[in-house]
Model the fold of this input.
Amino acid sequence: MRIFLHTGSSYTKNPAIIKQIVVMNVFSTIGCLITFCIGVSTFFQDNHIHTSVLFITSFLFLIAFLIQKAELFRNPYPYSSNLMLVTLFIVMAYLIQTGGVDNTGPLWVYIIPPIALFFGGIQKGLINLGLFGLVIATLLFYPDDFLLSTHYSNTFKLRFIYSLLTVTALFTVYEFIREKSYTELEVLSQQFEFQAKRDMLSGLHNRRGMMESLEYEYKRSKRTQSNITLIMCDLDKFKSINDQFGHEKGDEVIKTVSRLFQLNLRELDTIARWGGEEFLILLPMTDKEKGIIIAEKLRDIIQRHVFTYNDKTFNTTVSMGLYQINTTDSINDAISAADNNLYKAKALGRNQCIS
Done:
């Protein structure tokens, strides 16, 4: 059932569009079955014109669903939804023109406003409804009922138009509130998603955010045969900063170092606070030799920066381990290799880059 409902939604991850596709699949299927069944009924009543219209409508609803299923287009939804709406408009105009069974045809028209607004949104939906309203008003009020093959009283015509306008206004308000609520929820969702990938202290990516960037760049590097270099960084003797100047000053050091890294990296690079005083830098389209140049530049900037505490000044240094990812490496293996080179830099006296 889930596969059926989500037919044609594989091209998008937008929840709003997926919801519209699901509703369209349900509506086109139900519409196809109902119009076919009514068509069979009218066939046995020898109403061949109604039968033909209903069978054609059923067929067009089926085509709308098959457009989604076949995915002949990169984005099949606009084609299938437009076909379904045009089919509905034509059928409803036909029901008004002929009166349907015992002049009950106009009663079906009330399904049009919610469907047009849901599938087209407020702006496009109202334009479509305006055009449809112009057509049916012309049919109903043309002098001497010239365009009608049935008869409605003027009272019925006016009440029908007024009630249709009322239904349209109500569903427009509903659709406005629904779209506004969805937009607000989407903004909140994006904010939560952003926060979930960010380290609150430094403002850098956290592990989750970095892993997403790593997976993306790793796949791209395999596809384009380009290089990636990782730099694992650790502030030297950071515990002594916390012990001597306090944790508040230690937090300030982390924020300052994070800002210095950001200011001196390229736009295509990504940096994350990996944990504590440890940072991971992702350098796309960069081999080990270029990576060392970048790492040495950053290391020198950090060691020359002067921190102040009351009337005292102090410096901090950073050790770095570099690793150029090979095509046979997994992401975790590459991170471990960069981490091992960081430990070598620490063991060899700190404040240096090892690859």
